Prior knowledge:
two-stranded parallel ribbon, single chain
Amino acid sequence: MSLVVTGATGHLGHLVVEGLLDAGVPAGEIAAVVRSKEKAAPLAARGVELRIADYSAPETLTDAFRAGDRVLLVSGSEVGQRVAQHGAVVDAARTAGVALLAYTGILGGPDADFALADEHKATEQLILDSGLPYTFLRNGWYHENYTENLAPVLAHGAVVGNAGAGRIASASRADYAAAAVAVLTGEGHENRAYELSGDTAWTLAEYAAEVARQSGRDIVHREVTPEQHQEILVGAGLPAPFAAILVGVDTAVGQGLLARGDGALSRLIGRPTTPLADAIAAALK
Ligand SMILES: NC(=O)c1ccc[n+]([C@@H]2O[C@H](COP(=O)([O-])OP(=O)(O)OC[C@H]3O[C@@H](n4cnc5c(N)ncnc54)[C@H](OP(=O)(O)O)[C@@H]3O)[C@@H](O)[C@H]2O)c1
């Protein structure tokens, strides 16, 4: 039996593997499902078993899981392909007979009414249909979605969006990774769905004010229409379909769909979630 983390060469998956090691799980009991052996070399160097597989190639997944494994499926990053990809992973996990399949979905689960949520909802249904014991880690927004994009904010002196006064209960990737570690190493999480979000919800205007405070620059919040936002994002080089997804996210924020929080994340990790101000400070360094 191993604790298995897919997407372990990505930001979140890597933090989960590090968290498992920090929690005292022996490296030999951790397996990383990755598509690049080279990218995963640092994990192998720490004694973590590598299982090479691609969500898009079902034949590569046949040896990714073993009976009794506890698996974290980190949702893929190729929007539009993820239902088929995740379906292949679920099939492989069911065939292997894993003991638990945890999945990083989206805050709100079936109630998340915006385009980016569709593939997560479909994946949860595939997992339910598989009959496998599951845990749904319905992750809210990462602080890093904002703080890793500070350069244009500082360059233009503005946080631009169409979210109005909608609030975002974000947390750091490290917080969500800690929740996954708690589920993989703990007991009693079978067939449960956790709505995971930060302890404090903030608006884009509050975000702009905090960036201004910490950077010492003039940073304002500039509310635009969805159409204007789409134009700005495409003008900045984003492909139109992806820009539309981001505009849809802001619309969802405006409707309060990403403000939800019942403290499940801080309860699961046994500490308060990381304040947004800390993530801004780290990014400004
Ligand atoms: N809650 C949020 O705010 C938020 C924000 C962004 C994304 N997400 C979701 O959360 C996931 C994890 O976030 P992250 O920051 O860790 O993203 P990330 O750094 O892009 O990591 C994604 C991981 O998925 C792996 N992957 C993608 N396609 C794959 C495929 N076809 N086969 C095998 N592995 C594949 C990647 O492998 P490689 O290392 O080989 O590229 C990478 O390890 C994302 O993939 C996305 O679904 C959530």
